[in-house]
Amino acid sequence: MIFLNPTTRRRLAKFQKNRRAYYSFLFILATYIISLFAPFIANDTPLLIKYKGSFYFPMLSFHSERVFGGNQDTEPNYKKLRKTENFSESSQNYIVFPVISYGYNENHLDDFTENEFPPTAPDGKHMLGTDDRGRDVFTRMFYGYRISMTFSIILIFFEVIIGVVIGGMQGYFAGYVDLTVQRLIEILSSIPFLFMILIMGSFFGRSFMILLITYAFFAWIGISYYMRGEFYKLRNAQFVEAAKAFGIPSHKIIFRHILPNAMTPLVTFLPFSLIGSISILSALDFLGYGIPAPNPSWGELIGQGRERLSAWWLIGFPSFALFSIIQLTSFVGEGLRDAFDAKEKNSLK
Amino acid sequence: MTDLLRLENLSVHLLANHSSIPVLQDINFSVKEGEILAVVGESGCGKSLTSLALTRLLPEKVFSYHSGKILFQNKNVLEFSETELYSLRGGEIAYIFQDPFTSLNPIKKIKDQIIEPYIIHISPNKKEAIEKAESLLAKVGITDIKDRMEAYPGQMSGGILQRISIAMSLMCNPKLLVADEPTSALDVTIQSQLVDLLMEIRRENKMSILFISHDIGLVSSISDRIIIMYAGQIVESGTVDSVMDTPLHPYTTALLGAIPTIGDFSHKRLDSIPGIVPAPIDFPKGCHFHARCTKAMDICKTKNPLITGRESQSVRCFLYEGEQTKNA
After folding, report:
1. What homologous superfamily does CATH list for A2-38+139-340?
2. ipTM for the predicted complex
3. How far apart are CA B279 and CA B127, in angstroms?
4. How many CB pairs under 8 A join A and B?
């Protein structure tokens, strides 16, 4: 395995020694893993209901209002349900909500007093305040983080595959393949990305998938440049010549001998791709061309803040979150770059 | 003994800017079964090109096999299909390269690299391949075989890596081993060990070796026959004894004059050959060597001499024109 390689081990050790990068990496990893369990941490659907002696897990299975003494076939509003006479008559009935009992699309207008209007400033109930529709800002940021990270990771996955295949092909086969594909890439990169998003959005409707496909369609170009260069360099390496002399077929040479040796620029490139896609997604959401409402997003919150400049919490918290994630990711990128650098230097010094 | 490999009037051209430049001209030689044939010449004489041309490893976008034949076991390699070529490379003709540090993949374990040719050419049975690799590593004099198999090329010394490369090239029991300056990147002490090893392997496996080197002294002690190349042409060939004792071509004489002799205390400067080997695009008209030759005549500048001589020694030079002519 590539991970047992002494060089890789040395690089990992070097990365770990760069504590700023290492802890940034751990922080991002931990928060992303926590955010994957967001529905169990911040949600308006309860974890557990005890009603008339039996237990219900509404997060795992659907129960209509009738089950709890209502008369609708739809899912009940559990917060209202808790207050109904039917439910509260017995102290045996209870509902367990997650730690933060707000959904990302749940508005809290009913809880507001007479002269209170959204957005409300942070207080004991909503630690980061509410947005212009009375939704909890923390919950929306939490889910927004999950969406933008997931979006970026899926995007990078496709970006890497397309970039490696196309760049690798150009580098390995060179000649006319390289020339032709390079011209196509030039045409592609001259298409304005924002217009493409708008056109795709109006054709197929705005959605997570359309955004992902459109963005992936352009984003691989950067990676393909790096891979093309690496393959160009490695195709003339002595061990590739040796492999040819041993009668090893081209596809095996590409995947077993060249590609593993070409991973260095790819790995150091990844954190910066992540930064790129997180910020581009936020920017699109800010402009209103990103993931459609009512999906939570940092960009959308900042956009709300722009319209209500007095609501400082709508601008302050999401901007700070965006800034921190980008900053931490760039620390990771910096650490990786140093770790892959054969020279003994450290950008901290 | 029959010919294992025979090159008949092979010419290879380099295609550049819509013109084609001859880089190998009328190469004629044969390797007999169980024989060591040495190819000697300065850098840029076409020795390595010849070795790569044998299995058509020269990229065919850039090089064209202009004329001639490469006969391996009486089959023309130039007419081989892709599949036949793949089984020829590594299976029948194996290579050992000059620099063991760069000819092994730096990020793969020795184990995975050494079994790769076996798995491709002989059988996909991994266990069998590892057993074979271990026995070959023992044969080439490697200790701690289990550890070496798990190690990476960067963790070993050049001598050990070259032994591993030799073991790797023997994985498929090739009939011909092409050793392209296998010792020039290594220490002199290791050189002699490796040469001894190659001799021993040849005896055991009864295979032929095409030994490419610029070290005429080393070559003369191991090979049966010798070919001297200059600027894409064979200038002299013959048995080692006759070429070393009575070098005919001025180039061979010059090469031999450039070897230091042990026990020579005369403090005389070693001879050198003035100038460098011309690049293929500048190959001169007439004899390719005439500009650097001490015995050049007027005819050398205009006409390229033919090969003349006998089976035991033949030469491409006007000094010997008129003697019995034979293409060999």
Report:
1. MetI-like (1.10.3720.10)
2. 0.82
3. 48
4. 77
